[in-house]
Every structure is written in structure tokens, then in C-alpha cells.
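S.,

Sequence below, as promised.
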Amino acid sequence: MMFYMDVRYETGSDASMPDLLLIDEVETPRSGIEEPVGKLGKLCSLYQWHFDDPVDAFEIERNEEIFEFQGNRNPFIDNPDWVAAIYASNCEEEVTPLTVTVDTPSSALEETDLALKVTTSIEADEITLTQTSGVTVSFTQSANTFAMTLPSVTKDETVTFDITVKAGEQTVTESISFVVTNLAELPTPPEEKDSSGSLAWLSLMLLGLLGRRIKAN
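The prediction came back faster than expected:
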């Protein structure tokens, strides 16, 4: 009913219509019948009550009976979601969702140093890294960066970590993985052929042909 009064009574073409306002304050100033503005509170308490005590069958029936007598309806009983659509910006703090990204390579060589940097959409209160599988990797943390020394491996090994970020009441966990590459399993580049032997053989052939031509002459 209070939401209805707020949107129904607005200063407009009817000069005698009061402007009734819901404000998020207590002990709102009293207004006399001759005053153009009336303020009532507390808006955000009414907003919360709307969700704690949803529209029920009694209110729906009363709305129908009022409509039969007066010809007007309370839109917030017919459409309870309109309360959030109109007043959420006044009573709900806008929360930026927490997202987490980690600059992770697909692979890295054994016995090398690697740094994983964690980027968050909002400032994090806590960032933790937990290894969940693979050969054990030691690491140290500095703020949002994890420095690790990759171990020696006998074959390519996949390692997996969970990175958990807490910011306020939000917590996000991201799983990352990469391959620790064994140096012995890297493909061997093709050997370059030495062309000096071919050139020497060609030189001998040319000298033989030249010798035959001299004898013939």
C-alpha cells in the first residue's frame, strides 16, 4: 500500500494532488494537508518487508474488492516483482561480481622458474594456491603472484592447481593446469647435411674428365 501511495500521488497536472514520497529515513517531517509534499519512511525497511512477507491470498482478495468499489488496483499486488524493478537501486548495494583470471602457460620446461599472476575484478582479501595433482611443485607467494621452481621430470607431467580468491562475502575457485616438459622428450631438430663431401666428389669427376681430354688431344 505504501508503494502504491508513492507512485500514485505525484505532482502533475492536478495542482491539488500532493506529492507523497517514500524516503529511507526515520522520523520523517510531518506535513499538513495544505503542504504539497509528504514524506514517509523507512523505504528500505518496507522494501525488505515486501520480500519477507510476500503478497498472500488475503491481499489479492482485498485488491479485487477495492477494484470493484473504486475501479483502481494496486499494481504491486498484481505484480510483486515491480517493487524490485523500481526500488532496488535505492535499497540494494550494487555488487561487482568477483572474477578470477590466471596467466597460465600451456607448458613449461623442467627445472625452470615460473610465475603465475592472479588478476581479480575487485580487490581480493585472500588468495590461496593448492596443488591438486601431478608431480610436487614448490612455490612461494608475493601478493597476487605465485613463483615456482619446476622439478626435474622423467617424462612430461601435467600438474593441476586450485586458486581460491576471497573478496568480502564472495569466494571464487579456479582450476588451472599445465605440462612440465621433460627436456629429453623435446623433438630433436634435423641435422644439417655437410655438402663438402659432395663438392669433393664432383671436383674429382671434373679432374678425371679433364685428364681424358688432354690425352685425347
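Strands lie at 19-22, 37-40, 100-102, 107-109, 113-120, 126-133, 138-142, 145-149, 157-167, 170-181.

Coffee later?
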